[in-house]
Amino acid sequence: MICSVVGNGLSSYGFIPPPTNTPIFVTNEVTEIENYKSIIESHIQQDHNLQNLVTNSNENLLVTAAASSILIKELVAKLIELKGTSPSSTDQKRFARAIILVIPAWRYPGSEDGTDILFDQVGRGGLIQARLRHIHKALFKNQPKTKKRKELVIEQLRARPVRAWPEARQSIETRCADFKKSGKTEPTGSL
After folding, report:
1. Which domain of life is it from (predicted)?
2. Is residue 18 part of a domain?
3. Most exposed residue of 54, 95, 110, 176, measured as fewest CB within 10 angstroms of its CB?
């Protein structure tokens, strides 16, 4: 017997596993996308210019470069308002899926869910991602850049005093001479 039900509803393992045919996580994702969709629609309805851009794009089945620029700026601003300046990839993906529901003219036929032009999981070159990068550059342009680990290590090594430099040089020269005399083609050990 693999799993038996005990009087209190618990199995012999301490729990009853949920049925395998109920996709719990999908419901949350669909709900989140629907929430984003309603937020996007209400945001667009509040601005007549955005309404016209969306209507023209959907009627022509094409989002022009000018319309794309305006829409992405507005919609990413809304995403930032909801999720902060660094929304997760999951939030970006779901937001892109919601945009496609509102503006089907933006659907990219070459991808599974049509969001590649807005959110590119592989190349990170979607319009949403590009806009967020632009915003991050603008936000952090006045902050000093952090140094890479390699640069920090080199800086630390240069800051160390070299006390035994003549002895170290002599040791290296001796080892090099010994290596040449040995006739080996590759050095072994460390200098």
Report:
1. Eukaryota
2. no
3. 110
**Residue 19 is encoded by which pair of tokens?**
């049925």
38 and 106 together in one domain: yes
How distant, in Å, are the alpha carbons of 155, 162, 179 from that of 152? 5, 18, 33
| Same domain assignment for residues 136 and 157 | no
- Give tens-digit pLDDT for 125-142: 889 999 999 888 888 777
pLDDT at 191: 46
Same domain, 101 and 118: yes
Whether 36 is in a domain gets the answer yes
> Is the overall model pTM greater than 0.90, yes or no?
no
CB 96 within 8 A of CB 118: yes
Question: Residue 5: helix, strand or coil by DSSP?
Answer: strand
Tokens read off for 5: 């039900």
Is 189 within the bounds of a domain? Answer: no
User: Where would I find the H helices in the chain?
Assistant: 24-45, 48-60, 65-83, 89-102, 127-140, 149-159, 165-182
